Amino acid sequence: MSVATVTELSATSTQSFEDAIRQGLERATKTLRNVTAAWVKEQRVELEGGKVKHFLVHLEVTYVLEG
């Protein structure tokens, strides 16, 4: 039997949404083991002077508990 849990996290990038997702998942897998999936819950941008300053994503990361 497997038991999974979900952790919510946020990540930002000055490049793109894809880069923010990649950075968030790379960071999550440094701390969490057995990551099996991620759901992009929200995407938004922060503007400065009418131009995109940051791409932000909110992710839900699923991982299987050990033991």
Give the strand line-up of the largest sheet. Answer: 1-3-2
Which range does the strand content fall in?
A: over 45%
Regarding quaternary structure, what we see is single chain
Number of helices: 1
Number of β-strand runs: 3
Query: Distance between termini?
Result: 10 Å
Runs with pLDDT <50, length 5+?
Answer: none
**Can you give the helix content as a percent range?**
10-25%
As a whole number of angstroms, the C-alpha radius of gyration is 14 Å
Q: Could you spell the SSE succession in H and E letters?
A: EHEE
Give a written overview of the molecule.
- With 67 residues, this protein is of the alpha+beta class.
- It is 22% helix and 57% strand.
- Strands 1-3-2 form a 3-stranded antiparallel beta sheet, covered by helices on one side.
Task: Draw up the topology in text.
Elements: E1 4-13, H1 17-31, E2 35-48, E3 51-64
Antiparallel strand pairs: 1-3, 2-3
Short description:
By secondary structure, the protein is α+β, with helices and mostly antiparallel strands. It contains 1 helix and 3 strands; from the N terminus they run E-H-E-E.
